[in-house]
Write a structure and sequence with these properties.
Blueprint lengths: L1 H22 L3 E3 L2 E4 L7 E6 L3 H14 L4 E6 L2 H14 L9 E4 L2 H9 L9 H4 L6 E2 L3 E14 L12 H8 L10 E4 L5 H13 L3 H10 L3 E3 L2 H10 L4 E6 H9 L4 E4 L5 E9 L7 H12 L1 H11 L14 E3 L12 H15 L4
Parallel strand pairs: 3-4, 3-5, 8-9, 8-10, 12-13
Antiparallel strand pairs: 1-2, 2-4, 5-12, 6-7, 7-10, 7-11, 7-12
Length: 356
């Protein structure tokens, strides 16, 4: 009888463990991921532009550290993250709703949300430890950085012809044999927040930016909506070289065997932040703060670097290589002025889509 009771207790323990595992199992959809116990009263809602595939390891590490929290993650475009926050406030001002933290690679749009009063202040030892360029008004924070790079298919472009500066890229686009005609890609800045930010920073820093855009247009450039979209075209060989992609996503593809290589432009390499805000309407701003502090902690920064390929904030300045982070702050708002934006987009369209 004692043996029978022992067996029954063992089976019950196994069943309990099985049920526990099921309740904590990851629920994956095309653009989302849910972790943690289904019946939890502590539900953390995260909206971010980070790819679920690339960011999953970080989310799982947070979930292991906070097993009682149910984490609901949704991947959205940078433009949707911005417009949804504004629309939510306009529709139901002051009513707790939406995500508890918003993470975006369009640091200019995040800065505008702060400037226009859509974020709440968060001060902690982790935020206080950030360098000045990575924290603006204690409301928007860099959680990690990503160099903006050029990427090429190693099977389609000879190593001897690989451009290492924007001037060399311009020369390649102007070469008589037209090696990149119909085989170069760049962001569609009309719909991509990160693409618009990178392109306007180029205009600010580089006197050749207009000439390069014109050369793109004359070579029949294709435009992509995201780094993942561009990498699909590169990996398949439909495109030979893509301009202004995120390093972390590219590294992930290379690690998985894609025939791609990264170019860090030697004239300058933009280092953009993935930035986070806690919206004023966050239903559980305390959990948003918990997640933010985790991301900024030593453990979180290590997980970000290891799992997503982003660079830790503390390792984001590489002066010798011409790599410097773009600072959070009002300087990012210049090209979000409606008149300036319309003028820039008019010039961009005229260059990218030249008349036949």
């Amino acid at each position: 009888m004692r043996d029978a009771r022992s067996i029954l207790r063992g089976l019950a323990a196994i069943a309990a463990l099985t049920l526990s595992a099921i309740s904590h199992a990851a629920e994956v959809s095309g653009s989302g991921l849910t972790l943690g116990p289904a019946g939890s009263s502590n539900v953390l809602v995260v909206h971010a532009s980070n790819s679920v595939q690339v960011f999953r390891g970080v989310l799982e590490d947070f979930s292991r550290l906070n097993p009682s929290v149910r984490l609901e993650y949704t991947e959205l475009s940078t433009q949707d993250l911005y417009s949804d926050t504004v629309a939510r406030a306009a529709t139901a001002p002051g009513v707790p709703s939406g995500p508890d933290i918003v993470i975006s690679s369009a640091m200019d749009l995040q800065t505008k949300l702060v400037n226009d009063g859509y974020a709440r202040v968060h001060i902690s030892p982790q935020t206080r430890a950030l360098p000045g360029w990575a924290n603006w008004r204690d409301e928007v924070f860099s959680i990690g950085t990503d160099p903006i790079v050029m990427v090429y298919n190693t099977r389609k472009l000879d190593a001897a012809r690989v451009p290492h500066t924007r001037r060399e890229l311009l020369s390649l686009l102007q070469a008589p044999d037209q090696p990149l005609a119909g085989r170069i890609s760049t962001y569609d800045v009309q719909g991509s927040g990160i693409g618009y930010l990178a392109a306007t920073q180029d205009t600010r820093l580089d006197s050749m930016a207009g000439a390069l855009l014109g050369a793109f247009g004359r070579n029949g450039v294709s435009i992509h909506e995201s780094t993942e979209h561009a990498l699909d075209k590169l990996e398949s060989g439909d495109v030979t070289l893509a301009y202004n992609l995120l390093e972390s996503y590219t590294r992930h593809r290379i690690d998985n065997g894609a025939p791609l290589a990264i170019i860090y432009p030697q004239d300058y390499t933009l280092m953009l932040s993935r930035s986070a805000i806690i919206p004023k309407q966050a239903p559980r701003g305390d959990l948003g703060a918990l997640f933010l502090d985790y991301l900024l902690s030593a453990r979180g920064q290590d997980a970000l670097a290891r799992e997503s390929g982003m660079r830790p904030v503390s390792a984001s300045v590489v002066p010798a290589a011409g790599v410097r982070p773009v600072a959070l702050g009002v300087g990012l708002l210049v090209y979000l002025d409606p008149l300036k934006k319309r003028h820039f987009l008019d010039l961009w369209r005229a260059a990218i889509f030249p008349p036949l």
